[in-house]
Amino acid sequence: MTFLIILLFTLLVTLFIYYLRIKRRFDEISKHLDSIIENREIKTPLQSKRYLHSSYLKAKKIEDTVKALKKTLEEKEKLLEKLFYSVPIPLAFFSKDGKAEFKNYSFEKLFGNVDNLEDLKNLLRKEAFYKIIKETEEKESIKNIEIDWKNRVFSVNLDRIKFEGKDSYLISFLDITELKNTQRIKTEFTSNVSHELKTPLTVIKGFIETLEKELPSDKLYMIKTIKKHIDRLQNLVSDILLLDMAESGKNAVFEAFDLNETIETAINLLYKEAKEKNIEVTFEKEENIILNGDSFLILQAIINILSNAIKYNMPGGKVIIKTSKSDNKIILSCKDTGVGIPSQYIPRIFERFFVVDKSRSRQLGGTGLGLSIVKHIVELHKGIIEVKSELGKGTEFIIELRCLPTKV
Predict the structure, then answer these.
(1) Staple 257 to which of 2, 173, 295, 326, CB 3.0 to 4.6 Å?
(2) Which of 129-138, 176-185, 259-268, 344-353 shows the lowest mean pLDDT across its residues?
(3) CA angle 13, 15, 16 (to 5 degrees)
(4) Which domains does the chain have, with CATH numbers?
């Protein structure tokens, strides 16, 4: 009996010692894994023991994997830092409190030793720049403005992002001076050429009309063909000059006017065109739609949209024009029951000289500039334009004019 008690006690002591050894080894592995998780330097290497060899191998594998990932991340971080630093576009990260967290070489070259956002504001002294910073503080979205500084034009992008776990501002300055100069030269050239063409075309048309009265009837088809192409050239010249005015804002006069009256004027001007195709034009208006803008340009935009709605409509079709007010914005829509626009072409319809059906457009006398003119007129009035279309069922143009309605 005594022997059994001694044997049992010895067994319990042995098991307890064995348990302590296993616990110590598990504690070592646990501390090792904690060091890996907390990204601390591992000072004591993990020793393999036969009775915990599988656990040791797993811990060792985790350790090696983490070390490899850490090394890869450090290498990529250095590479990204070098890439950002060498990017030819000036860019910088500013923390929410305004401190410069990172600046690349181009930024330092352009702005010198600017270490905080307040210094950058004071250096630029641009109201638009103050405004986009304030807007970004209130709402997380990418802001873009153009500013003039030191005889250069910059496209400035500002975005609120997370940098090293903190709210930061990523600011970039793209020099678009040459692009602006090229656009200005192109616009001036187009405008000058159009002005120069206007007079000779008028003279040619006058002589053609005189010849029309003198020629025998069997030769009149030639005169009609010439007149048709002169009319097309005159329309093209007029559209180019109108596009130049809409794009540059030159000679635009902003004043309060009744948008409903302008729409009614456009409908009356195109009454004959609609009647010839038996198109029913309906105007659903909300009263007192007063807009601050250039009434002549807005009239041209409405004429272009309504003209397209009639030209590309089915005989006996309908056009519905609506005006309404929503959240201090004016909404104008023009919906037709025409042929519609294939979805793949919708993103391109506002491009200059782009037409979906070239043969049909030529037959109907289009220049390919109408919708481009509309887009620039809407943008000049700080508005947006949206297109919805379904092939064979019709198209709807929705214009949202962001200018505030004004009481006359």
Answers:
(1) 295
(2) 129-138
(3) 65
(4) 2-83 (no CATH), 87-175 (3.30.450.20), 178-251 (1.10.287.130), 253-408 (3.30.565.10)
